[in-house]
Amino acid sequence: MRRPAVLAVDGGGSKMDAVLLRRDGTVLGARRVAAHGYQETGDEAFLDQIETAVIAVADEVGLDPARGPIAELGVFCLAGADLPVDDRRIARGLRRRGWAGRDVLRNDTFAVLRAGTERDWGVGVVCGAGTNCTAVAPDGRIYRFPAVGGISGDFGGGWDLGEQALWHAIRSEDGRGPKTSLQKAVPAYFGKTRPRTVMESLYLGGLDGERILELAPVLFAEARAGDDVARSVVDRQADEIALMATVAMRHLRITGLDPDVVLGGGVFRNEWEAFFQRIEAGIHAVASQARVVRLTSPPVVGAAMLGLDEVGAGRAAHGRARGSLTHERLTEHTRVAGKEH
To answer: Which fold has domain 6-108+297-340?
Structure first.
């Protein structure tokens, strides 16, 4: 078969999506595989995870990456591409692997932004395992945060929210902090009776440390049920999201315009309106004309749109790809650690 025009890959902290498209926007293959973030794996292991996704989608289409590039252009929107030094290392690895004739590397915030708007500018905020934000001005200027955790001033995402849930539960139990329903809800989630038991299981390895991420929905549930401590953490997350977006807009001097502010990632897949109302209020206090968009399509749609932009595809091609790329399409044949499930 003729080589596809675009290989689009979106990689966050927990999964990797890969899509192959024709120039007319026809989706030839789409696969999702489990993954870990760049900071948790290192260069080669991270590239191996991308390769698992690439092989999966190539198999679906009937191509062999070992025999040469499987697409004319590769667009890789990756959570690990945070600092310029990351970009250089990952870009070298992509060239070495040779999955596409030409590579474009972006942070995953660019995929979220492009997936949520038809414009080529605006603000993309990711809040999944971690949190990040990128803003693009109408003239192409870009403002990005380093987003490598607490050492770069970050707060938020599943890791921080989960740790905060356990932190407050422990302090409620031993008296160092105010009483909170998290004291019961956190251990109950893991089938335990005390927060201390959860802490010991994590410390001794009885519980996988990554399961901290699973406590973010528990935190939201307790906040929604009226717990003041849980609510304070959720409010802090909402305020941080609004702050990142508005600071990025201020740096680009676009607060007086009408940017789309696209919210993507697992933390945004909750249904609590008060959380989103607080985010919108914080954004509108600085940029009154901004339009806040909750992303419902998979972010790899944005990587695909960026690829189609790059190859000069028309509006019909973009619409065709958007209509075909759904979460259901990506998970029809979910592959975890190289095995079909």
So the answer is: Nucleotidyltransferase; domain 5 (3.30.420)
